[in-house]
Description:
This protein is α+β, with helices and mostly antiparallel strands. About 30% of the residues lie in helices and about 20% in strands. The chain has three domains: about 5-120, no CATH class; about 140-265, no CATH class; about 270-535, no CATH class. The strands form four sheets. Strands 12-19-18-13-17-16-15-14 form an eight-stranded antiparallel β-sheet. The protein is elongated and about 105 Å long.
Amino acid sequence: xxxxxxxxxxxxxxxxxxxxxxxxxxxxxxxxxxxxxxxxxxxxxxxxxxxxxxxxxxxxxxxxxxxxxxxxxxxxxxxxxxxxxxxxxxxxxxxxxxxxxxxxxxxxxxxxxxxxxxxxxxxxxxxxxxxxxxxxxxxxxxxxxxxxxxxxxxxxxxxxxxxxxxxxxxxxxxxxxxxxxxxxxxxxxxxxxxxxxxxxxxxxxxxxxxxxxxxxxxxxxxxxxxxxxxxxxxxxxxxxxxxxxxxxxxxxxxxxxxxxxxxxxxxxxxxxxxxxxxxxxxxxxxxxxxxxxxxxxxxxxxxxxxxxxxxxxxxxxxxxxxxxxxxxxxxxxxxxxxxxxxxxxxxxxxxxxxxxxxxxxxxxxxxxxxxxxxxxxxxxxxxxxxxxxxxxxxxxxxxxxxxxxxxxxxxxxxxxxxxxxxxxxxxxxxxxxxxxxxxxxxxxxxxxxxxxxxxxxxxxxxxxxxxxxxxxxxxxxxxxxxxxxxxxxxxxxxxxxxxxxxxxxxxxxxxxxxxxxxxxxxxxxxxxxxxxxxxxxx
Length: 538
C-alpha cells in the first residue's frame, strides 16, 4: 500500500468506526495520536488543516482533498505518521494487518485504490526512491541542530523529526516522537545560541510555567540554555534543575521539586532602580526621622483570593518565626526603651485599610515622654486585576522621642551611639524579607504554590524623612542616623535616601536571605560611592 493510501485508510477507518469517540479505548487513543501527528505536519497550511478536520466528519467527500494534502505537505513521508497509521489499522483490522493488507509497497504510484472502498485517488507527483524524511533543523538550521541530535542519541533515541523547525517565543523548536531506546523530546535553541535537546516532559513543564497565562511559558521563562562542557547532551525528566535564558522574566531555572512537580525560579540579581514603593502607603503626618523599608512585589496567577479572619490569624501566628518583632525590640532595648512584647494591631483608616483585599497592621514603642519612638508597619494587598501581591514592612525611628530635647538645632546632631548600625539594618532587611512572604497568608495558604506571573522583586530603602530640603523646623542628615563608617567615606556631597532592588526567588532559606540582605546593604554603599564598600565586613 502506498504511504498516502495507508494514512488515508487509517484516518477513514478511525473516523467511520467511531474511534474518535472512544477516548479510553486503545483504538481511540491511536486515532487521536495519528490525527495529532498529521495536524502537526499540516501546521500553517489552512487548506490541509481544513481537510483533516472535515475528513473526520465526512471521509468520503474529503478523502481526495486530504490525500492531496498528505502528498503535498510530505506528511505521508513521516515515519512516525506511518507508524501511527499502521498501529491504528492493526487495532481495527488485525486480520488484515496479519495478511499484509497494510504493508507499504508502492512508491511514486500515480493512481492508488484505497483499501477495500473501491475508490481510486489519483496523485501525480515526482517518483521518489524513499520517504521524504525531515532532517533535524530543517529548514536552514541543519548545521546547528544536527550535532545536538546525534549527541542526544540520534534516531534510536529521539526518532525522526515530526515536523520542521518553527519559531516559538525567544527561539526555534523542533519536535521528535522518541525512538525505540528513547522518549518524545524537543530540540530548541535561542536565536544565535547552541540548541539543546530536552525531554518532552521538561518542555511541557516549561510551557506550563504561569499556567499558560499571557506572558508565561517560554515567552516569560525562556528556553533551556546550552549546558557547560562535560554535562549531558540531553536534559531528561530526571534532571534536578534546568538553566533557562532568553525569557522576558530574566534568567532562571526550572526545578524538579520533591513531589514530582516542576517550579520556575528566577536567578537573584541586584539593580539600582529601587523607586516604585519609596512613598507607597506613607502618611504625610508621620512623626519620624528615619525609615527602613522593605517592599515586595510578587506576581502570581490568582483566582479570586480573599483576606479572611482565619487568614489574618494564620498570618499573625506565623509572623514571630520571621524574627521581625525580636529585631525591633532589640533595637528598642539598645536605645534604653522598654518595648515589652511587641503587639501588632490593625491600622485604622484613613492611614490603613483592612478588608478582603488589604491587611494593614502597626506596632509602637513609646519613648520616655510617651511619644512614639519606634513605629513599625505591615501593609499587604492581594493580587488582583493583573496587579501583583504587594507587601511593605517599615520600621521608623523618631530620635527626638528616643531622647526628648537632646537634639537642639538644625540639622539635629544625633550621637554616634544612637546611629543604626549596618548589622541592625541588614537584620531588619532579612527579617522583613521573610515577613513579606508571611503576609500573604492572610488570603493565600501558600504563595509558593501559586503559578508565577513574573519574577518577584524586592526593594530596600533607608529613608531620611526630615532632609535639609524638606522645609521643616527640624532637619536631620542621613549619615547622622545610620552608621556607614564601615564602608569608608562617601564621594557624594550630599546623601538623602539610599536604596537598592533585587529580583529574587521565593522560598529562600533564612541563611540565604541573610546573606542577600548583607549584599543589598553593600550594593547600596557601592551605588552611593562609599570608598570601602566592596571590602566592608558586615
